[in-house]
Design goal:
The chain is an alpha+beta fold. Helices cover 60% and strands 16% of the residues. The chain has five helices and three strands. A hairpin with a 5-residue loop joins strand 2 and strand 3. The longest helix has 13 residues.
Length: 89
């Protein structure tokens, strides 16, 4: 019986839907993905759109989403450098 439960748990961990939900299930990730679904945004535009998020949490969440391949970060050669975030295909 324990063997059946173990293999069922392993099957759930390998489920692609579960993997996506694990990546975007926290409050900030969901809000950021919803905003970036409308259009690419710069960092400060995201901060203005989500007034309750701290700068540190926004940075950390964007880095995690970028690491997971959900968000792309584009740097523009301006002074100061412009950074824009968008959803990946």
């Amino acid at each position: 019986m324990a063997m059946v439960e173990a293999s069922a748990a392993e099957g759930l961990d390998a489920c692609p839907v579960r993997q996506v939900l694990d990546q975007v299930s926290d409050k900030w990730s969901t809000l950021i993905v919803m905003l970036l679904d409308e259009s690419p945004l710069r960092f400060n535009a995201l901060r203005r759109a989500i007034p309750d998020i701290s700068q540190r949490m926004l940075t950390q969440t964007l880095r995690n989403l970028q690491r997971d391949g959900l968000v792309a970060r584009a740097v523009f050669p301006t002074v100061p450098p412009g950074v824009e975030y968008s959803l990946t295909p």
